[in-house]
Amino acid sequence: MKNRSRSLNSTARYNIALFLVLVAFVVIFTLMNPKFLAKFNIFLIFRQNLPNMIIACALMFVVTSGSIDLSVGGVMAFCAITYAALCVKGVNPWWAIGIVALIGVGIGLINTLLIEKLGIPAFMATIAGWLIYGGLAFTVCGGPNPISKPAMQVITILDDKATYVGPFPLALVIVVVVVAVFLFLERKTVLGKYAIAIGGNFNAAYFSGINVIKMRAIYYVLCSVMAAMSGVWQVARLSTADPRCIGLGTEFAALSACIVGGANIKGGQGSIIGAVLGVLLLAVLPNGIQLMKSALPVWLQWLKSPFLPQVITGIVLLVVVFINYLIGRGKHYE
Amino acid sequence: MSELAQKPSRRPVLKFSANGVQNLAMFGILVLIWIVGSILFPAIFNTWENVRNILVSSTSVIITASAITLVLITGNLDLSVAGVGAMSGVLFGLFTIAGLPVWLAAVAAILCGATSGFLNGFIISRFKQPSFIISIAFKYFTAGIALIASNGQSIASGMPGNVKNIAQTISGLPLPIMYAAVISLIFLFVQNSTVFASQAYAIGANIKTARFSGINTVKVVTSVFTLSGILAAFTGIIIVSRFSVADCSMLPGLETDCIIAAVLGGTDINGGRGTILGMIIGALILFTLTQIMNFLNVAMYDQQIIKGVVLILAILVNDTIRNKIKV
Q: What ipTM does this complex have?
């Protein structure tokens, strides 16, 4: 907390602290095993976490505006399977991506209708959406068996192991571009400010002339479209469209990243940079611990379990919430 | 009208509260679904076999949701129950394999669940944090423990045979139904006639007012979450005992099922409203529908879609009943 300068607001201070924590972990893991900073590992982290990253950016808007979207996992599965099915049917993959993006827009609008017009609590409406789209994914797939490799040869456009843009893999480029776009939306358009205004005080925002429903609709649509694109990415990365595993738990993973990144679940606080740092922190920790070679004493060997990421996410969430409590940031419920 | 006003009737007039209308409406829907089932499958639907299957499959939701309804009444959410149930079930299996007597293993596993629920509730109420986030953290935490303890595989062999005793069938009546009946009766009593439940309603309606009127909010919320941890653990143990398999993903979607059952029964997820009786009717609606869909050969994943639609419709119907019908 040595960066506590008066000129920075609490969100900026939080982000700097988070960044320092991230750097500290990277340094520790690199000292433990220099391979942690190898090109391969860095690229791997980005490949694996691209969906979380771009969904968390969009979800940050939704959470900051005081709402929530838990349907992203289902949307991701549904769109992934639809994309694969379209490609297998012979549709040009680029057209298929466009169609899937349109589906994302539609789902975002349905969310808006349910939450803002019919007044169903966002939590319930999107949990129902998650059930519905998750089920639809299986229906489109025609059963629990994935659409896999032989039928999927069409979709090599985004096959990420082969695709490099200059020296950088496609995943890194996509992440940088998406984050840049969201930073632009946050800083240079009304989206970011209005999200904080709506989340901070819904009624005040309404009476000062913000078209609250329109803004929320934009956030939901962004979120669903990003989820749809993540679905496409997963299909390209795994070369298989499996309704059982694509998007499983993504909603909670992305939401945890937002919370770690300083979002207030009741709305009014949050930043895109924070979301990105949150995803990176939750991604780097399990990866680094896996790479620690023989540096662990026997009684800590259980840390090597491949199932550790879940526990780490839980612990990090608790720690972050506790720190927020200690520094008096993000008072949630009185 | 004027006649009625002049002579107040001495006969006991049947009066309903808003909750009463709600429960009656939901009960009507349950009966309707039941009639539809009987018409579609006249030969099998009204047999004891079928009723027993529906009841047994609804036990895990009824047991867990008894506490979840109280949690929702206090205005909180508990998304950790599936994780807690899986953790306790896996630990129960491992304890019995390690040689503990079955009852001791069950008590130890329930204690683990209670600890998780206690910590969950204590952090939420003492540090005034959103239940949503904390219970997600505990969901990750407990599900992770279940995965690590079972090493990601289902534990099917090595458990002593008397593990089955917990969920055995005694003279045609499966014990899980008995547990569900006893637990829901206890919670019906708690919800209807204890100060504890009134305090829970007060906290859900307005936590500030509740605190200023001298209610120990930390104590009430922590107890409610502890109960939810205990019952989730118990559900996990029953499942392990029923199938003799301890699997780290054995209660998929329990948290959403519990919330759906409670909401079908008229519970408001913003807190302050809801009844255990409604939850039981809601759970029965959910599982009767599931059974009908099973008979119709509707695939698992299509049932999931219908569940989502039912959830949305239930909330809309709830809102309509509360807003349009004056009692």
A: 0.83
